[in-house]
Amino acid sequence: MDETGLMIKRxxxxxxxxxxxxxxxxxxxxxxxxxxxxxxxxxxxxxRGSGKRTVQIFKKKxxxxxxxxxxxxxxxxxxxxxxxxxxxxxxxxNELKPIIQKTLLGFASGVMVAxxxxxxxxxxxxxxxxxxxLAFLPASIxxxxxxxxxxxxxxxxxxxxxxxxxxxxxxxxxxxxxxLVLAVTLHNIPEGMAVGVVFAGFLAEKSGITLAAALALSxxxxxxxxxxxxxxxxPLRSESGMSRKKAFAMGTLSGIVEPxxxxxxxAAYRYLEPVLPVLLALAAGAMIYVVVEELIPESAQGSHSDxxxxxxxxxxxxxxxxxxxxx
Length: 327
What we know:
Layout: H1 2-86, H2 98-126, H3 136-156, H4 176-203, H5 211-238, H6 244-253, H7 257-267, H8 269-272, H9 276-300, H10 305-326
Helix pairs in contact: 1-4, 1-5, 1-6, 1-7, 2-5, 2-9, 2-10, 3-9, 4-5, 4-7, 4-9, 5-6, 5-10
């Protein structure tokens, strides 16, 4: 009986040890279960982190899409301005009064001069800061090349200015209406270049040109394109006897060169990036040529020349505000 009792005691001792071990294991499991939420939260946070990274990737893709959309929008804004101006032929019976025409010409001149300085020449020199005191050199070269390029186009392209009966450029047998349209088209070439080069600078790296600055330039050119569209379509209707629809079409087509030139420049921005400072200044030189050679003299002819000066001041200040405030 004593041996049997000892065996029973040993078995009970083993059972107590087993129960004790089980209790220890259960406590460890409980501790693990308490720690599991923390570990689970870490896993969830990692998952959320990966989710955030995924969202960021999608945002970048979406941003890239928006960049393309914004670029297209910026290119088309000036053309919309020309089209809206040409549409005045449907609402106005006669051509613009001389005082209004001179004011609008002066306004367009002011916008173009301010855009040349703040949106083109200053960014051109800022991009060449590494050159130190010679930072002006690329801008100076580009500016003079732009002047010479427009001088060449002015000598080659046959065109006729408003209020003049003597055509300029290459002598040919084109109609008066066609040469009037070519004159406005000649104005629009540097504007299309300017928009294209600025948006190319926006797409390029380390150019310092923001989307807001590029859109400000497009908006400013669109504002000054409005009177240009009206100034070309209304005389075509009143002086040449064109139908309203045809005068509107001709006025609109005079601005088609802007988006075409801008898109061509943007498409090649990767290759043009090394010479962007020169191209920005080139567009500025071309715009200044148009202003000094054609817009300001036309606004100063005859009476009410002071209205052209006032229009210039208003256009200059407006473009300066747009570029500084938005850019």
